[in-house]
Automatic annotation (TrEMBL):
Residues 12-23 have a biased composition (Basic and acidic residues). This is Methionine gamma-lyase. Residues 1-23 are annotated as: Disordered. One of its GO terms (biological process) is transsulfuration. It comes from Carya illinoinensis (Pecan).
Length: 451
């Protein structure tokens, strides 16, 4: 794909002044430059703390919202230089907010710090980020191979939309089977390996380092959806070329915003914003600056939230397993990829904030969710995840309903699989008591003692 002439737009810290040099009296500009983006990556929380802090226009500790759709210039020839790629956001020159916006750019720097990538840019939704990346890396006639266990919307994009609209085909493989992954590569056509760090909804953990080695040996790009594991896993540090997110989930935390992000190299991000061929520019999946401001204020406490989500998930999973429920959670030692996840998870962040309980049938799954919501107020029956309240859904009939019966079987999605996004509201023991009461009522209401 064509790339913009200036390859530093996505992460540079320079700011424009009248003379193109810093004025000693320009205190706000000096402040912004002093707190430049971190050049090294450590713990995700440490990387976020080291990233450039954007102050407000009048010295506020929070950045100002740049809500303008279009931007003015001082001289007419400047505009043509901007469209030619000679001047850009690296020197505080902005054209139009569908391209680069200062407020969205600040959130993007935070996302790059979070994932340990050179750059990032944010989009209007997780699916906008995913589809833009695929359309950028894959052309008509090319091939993708992807995990059988994927979010239903992503599966539908690859199964139905891309073949029909773009002549792009996908082979779905069990990424646990590394030999099957090798065999799925179509020489000369396969351009991307796509999978989720922790799969939705089965909670399978991908062997990111080994999958990246297999793909890179064949010159194939690796795209990893890390929506289920921000802070917990850092795919780019394990070899992934691109990391995508639905920011709507854990990163937002409020179940009130739809947003996505693409994290990768500066060259990738800038080429995706290219004025002539960049999908994040041309297709228009633009993030609103007011949304970017809201999200930038939530990321600083993401580490605290993730630790509590993950802590409670482990406690509830451990206790439910002792009660005899069929529990799926990567933090349990009996999970098939527990040791794998432990080997590359970021220290002290746990094993994820989602737990699955396999009730075997949809009827029993629905009955459990009914008691959890309507009898004991443990959580809400709703899709999505990462909310401070616990959210419950039967994946096969909701977020994975785009998949047919055979596809769900291949992905390991049982008809009775209940996905629980563990919240952190209330005390842990208060919420456990509610869960226990729901299980007890369900047990007592049936003709047998089986959950």
């Amino acid at each position: 794909m064509a790339e913009t002439k200036n390859q530093t737009f996505a992460f540079s810290d320079k700011k424009r002044t009248d003379s193109d040099h810093l004025d000693g009296d320009n205190l706000i500009t000096v402040k912004k430059q002093m707190l430049s983006s971190a050049s090294t990556w450590e713990d995700p929380a440490a990387a976020l703390a080291a990233a450039r802090h954007e102050f407000g226009e009048h010295g506020g500790v929070n950045m100002s919202i740049e809500a303008s759709a279009t931007f003015t210039v001082m001289e007419p020839e400047t505009l043509s230089r901007m469209f030619a790629g000679e001047l850009g956001p690296d020197r505080d020159f902005f054209i139009y907010s569908r391209h680069f916006n200062p407020t969205v750019l600040n959130l993007s720097r935070q996302m790059a710090a979070l994932e340990g990538t050179e750059a990032a840019y944010c989009a209007s939704s997780g699916m906008a980020a995913i589809s833009s990346v695929l359309l950028h890396l894959v052309s008509s006639g090319d091939h993708v191979f992807a995990s059988t266990a994927l979010y239903g919307g992503t599966h539908a994009l690859m199964t139905h939309f891309l073949p029909r609209a773009c002549n792009i085909t996908t082979t779905f493989v069990d990424v646990d089977d590394l030999e099957a992954v090798r065999n799925a590569i179509v020489h000369g056509r396969t351009k991307v390996l796509y999978f989720e760090s922790i799969a939705n909804p089965t909670l399978k953990v991908a062997n990111i380092p080994e999958l990246c080695r297999i793909a890179h040996d064949k010159g194939i790009k690796v795209v990893v959806d890390n929506t289920f594991a921000p802070m917990v896993v850092s795919p780019a540090r394990l070899g992934a070329d691109v990391v995508v997110h639905s920011i709507s989930k854990f990163i937002s935390g409020g179940a009130d915003i739809i947003a996505g992000a693409v994290c990768g190299s500066a060259g990738l991000v800038n080429s995706m914003m290219d004025l002539q061929q960049g999908p994040l520019m041309i297709l228009g999946p633009t993030m609103n600056a007011k949304v970017a401001f809201e999200l930038s204020e939530r990321i600083p406490h993401l580490a605290l939230r993730m630790k509590e989500h993950c802590h409670r998930a482990l406690v509830f999973a451990t206790r439910m397993k002792k009660l005899g429920l069929k529990v799926i959670y990567p933090g349990l030692e009996n999970h098939p990829q527990h040791t794998l996840l432990k080997s590359f998870a970021n220290k002290d962040y746990g094993y994820g904030g989602l737990v699955c309980v396999d009730m075997e049938t949809e009827e029993r799954a629905n009955r459990l969710m009914h008691y959890l919501q309507n009898s004991t107020q443990f959580g809400f029956m709703a899709v999505s995840l990462g909310y401070y309240e616990t959210l419950l859904s039967c994946s096969g009939s909701s977020t994975s309903s785009e998949m047919n019966t055979q596809e769900k079987e291949l992905a390991g999605i049982s008809p009775g699989l209940v996905r629980i996004s563990v919240g952190y509201i209330g005390t842990l023991e208060q919420k456990w008591s509610q869960l226990e009461k729901a299980l007890s009522r369900m047990q007592n209401s049936g003709s047998s003692n089986k959950y």
